[in-house]
Amino acid sequence: SCAPRGEECPMSDFDSALRRCVEFFVNSTLGALWGVKVTGLDFVPRSGPLIAAFNHSSLLDGPLLGAAMAPARRPCFLGKKELYRYPPLDWLLRNIGSIPLDRGTADHAAMRAALELLERGGAIALSPEGTRVKPGQVRPPKLGVSFLAAKTGARVLPVRLVGTAEFPRRFPLEVRVGVPLAAPTEGREAALSFARVVMDAIYAL
């Protein structure tokens, strides 16, 4: 659910008191000790279905992205199901807006939940590569972003996270937001091409 916040947070985005507490903790701690530089936040559409596609190299990526985007949108995250094995962590993740995803299979339940959220005009955040990728490594993007965008007409927001792979040695951490990309047409070739465009847009930031 999402508490009314005017144009800043559509009712279909995820909002909760716990999530706001986590955002405050992340912003205050990282901002005070490491510094956090956020650029391009004005590019974030304040309404309508949206997929925030980000590079993923650290467990810090999700909390940092969520806190940085909060003034504009509060996306739900797709997280690997292994994180939900422990009841306290399962409870925490679900209550700050996270959907478990089985990366080893075609997880229809997770995709259905993401589709339903986007169809309500909500926002989700995910990594096109589907797993953590160390700096210098290259992995082909998966087609989840293309599939979800084509099915729902969601715009795709490229986001580059800088410094999380080197944390805590990197000062400051950066969140760079790019210009939203229009959803692709359906079809495998279009999906493959769009997935590459998304990755290029992320790493060009």
List keywords for this structure.
205 residues; alpha/beta; seven-stranded mixed beta sheet; disordered N terminus
Q: Can you put this structure into words, describing what you see?
A:
The chain has 205 residues and is an alpha/beta fold. It is 35% helix and 17% strand. It is built from six helices and seven strands, in the order αββαβαβαβαββα. The protein has a seven-stranded mixed beta sheet with strand order 1-7-6-2-5-3-4, sandwiched between helices. The radius of gyration is 16 Å and the shape is globular. 38% of the residues are buried. The N terminus is likely disordered.
SSE blueprint:
Blueprint: H1 17-33, E1 36-39, E2 50-54, H2 61-69, E3 76-80, H3 87-95, E4 98-101, H4 108-119, E5 123-126, H5 144-152, E6 155-162, E7 173-177, H6 188-203
Parallel strand pairs: 1-7, 2-5, 2-6, 3-4, 3-5
Antiparallel strand pairs: 6-7
Helix pairs in contact: 1-2, 4-5, 5-6
Major sheet: arrangement of strands: 1-7-6-2-5-3-4
The low-confidence runs, each spanning 5 or more residues with pLDDT under 50, are 1-7
Largest sheet: 7 strands, mixed
Number of strands: 7
Q: If helices are DSSP runs of H or I spanning 4 or more residues, what is the number of helices? A: 6
Cα end-to-end separation: 32 Å
Sequence of secondary-structure elements = HEEHEHEHEHEEH
The secondary structure category is alpha/beta
Q: Globular, elongated, flat, extended or rod-shaped: what is the shape?
A: globular
Q: Averaged pLDDT, please?
A: 88
Question: Helical amount among residues, as a percent range?
Answer: 25-40%
What portion of residues belong to β-strands? 15-25%
Query: Cα-atom Rg, whole angstroms?
Result: 16 Å
